[in-house]
């Protein structure tokens, strides 16, 4: 059923950007413009006001947007009902995921899901939690998987799994054979940390503050912009760090890193599933949600045991 033009139109309306729509819909920018032009020719009126620096809906555009959202919701319901009758589940899903869960958890889940649902296409957008929330609010994604807390009233949040962060050291470090170390001891070691603004860094700073430790008390040897570079630096002996157990599972499996739990208490945060409240979801999204909730995530962590 032809609903592509309406999807393009709604995405432009929600992002207020032809270039962002081009990235999200996977069309060239001229192709996005042609889709909007076709709708404007069909209704013989302008749908967007491009006179200022931003793109805004005209009065006619606002009317079309309101009806287009209802029409797309009806299409989703129709697809769901037909899928139930035929037993054929197909369609596409766009998932937004914050960095740790998007890079280290979601790929394995999608691979397993596709084995039993080959007709469903899944697109993944990865960004920080704030960006994923913005994507969800603007209708760019069907669902989001984020780290940490969310406080949006229009969003339904459900804890999916717990993430544990812990100390990582190279196998030749004096602590490598220890299972626990006091968090107070880390002030004596060269420490590698994520850049300011990182969600992981915020969790670490909050935990350290609960034990009266400030970043200024640490012997910070490196500030790096990604977990991969931090793991490589730790493996090279440039310092110790704190990372997610999910992010380090491959290195733990092959023995290139050792993970140590703080003696005081574990550093925990939630990975949460976020959805718009009262959203009409397609049969494909419904099936993927059920799969996400039923998946045995502990099997992924069990792979991190050293060979």
TrEMBL record:
InterPro entries per the UniProt record, alphabetical:
LysR-like_Sec_metab, LysR_HTH_N, LysR_subst-bd, WH-like_DNA-bd_sf, WH_DNA-bd_sf
Alphabetic keyword roster: DNA-binding, Transcription, Transcription regulation
Sorted alphabetically, which PROSITE patterns does this protein's record hold?
A: HTH_LYSR
Q: Which domain of life is it from?
A: Bacteria
Span of domain HTH lysR-type: 1-58
GO MF entry, a single one: DNA-binding transcription factor activity
* Transmembrane annotation, as ranges: none
> Which stretch is the leader sequence?
none
The similarity comment for this entry is: Belongs to the LysR transcriptional regulatory family.
Name of the protein in its database record: LysR family transcriptional regulator
The organism of origin for this protein: Candidatus Nitrobium versatile
């Amino acid at each position: 059923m032809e609903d592509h033009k309406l999807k393009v139109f709604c995405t432009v309306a929600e992002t207020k950007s032809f270039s962002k729509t081009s990235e999200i819909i996977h069309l060239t920018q001229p192709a996005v413009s042609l889709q909007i032009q076709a709708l404007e020719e069909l209704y013989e009126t302008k749908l967007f006001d491009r006179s200022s620096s931003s793109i805004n809906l005209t009065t006619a555009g606002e009317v079309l947007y309101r009806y287009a959202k209802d029409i797309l919701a009806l299409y989703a319901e129709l697809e769901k009902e037909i899928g139930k009758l035929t037993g054929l589940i197909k369609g596409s899903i766009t998932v937004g995921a914050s960095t740790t869960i998007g890079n280290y958890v979601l790929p394995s889940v999608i691979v397993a899901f596709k084995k039993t649902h080959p007709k469903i296409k899944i697109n993944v957008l990865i960004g920080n939690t704030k960006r994923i929330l913005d994507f969800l609010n603007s209708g760019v994604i069907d669902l989001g998987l984020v780290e940490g807390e969310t406080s949006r009233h229009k969003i339904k949040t459900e804890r999916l799994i717990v993430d544990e962060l812990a100390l990582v050291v190279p196998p030749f470090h004096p602590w490598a054979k220890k299972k626990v170390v006091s968090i107070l001891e880390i002030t004596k070691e060269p420490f590698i940390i994520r850049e300011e603004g990182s969600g992981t860094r915020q969790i670490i700073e909050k935990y350290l503050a609960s034990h009266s430790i400030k970043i200024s008390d640490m012997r910070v040897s490196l500030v790096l912009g990604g977990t991969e570079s931090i793991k490589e630096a730790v493996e090279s002996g440039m310092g110790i760090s704190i990372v997610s157990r999910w992010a380090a599972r491959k290195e733990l499996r092959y023995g290139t890193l050792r993970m140590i739990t703080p003696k005081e208490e574990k550093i925990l945060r939630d990975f949460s599933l976020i959805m718009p409240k009262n959203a009409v979801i397609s049969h494909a999204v419904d099936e993927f949600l059920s799969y996400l909730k039923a998946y045995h995530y502990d099997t992924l962590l069990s792979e991190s045991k050293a060979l």
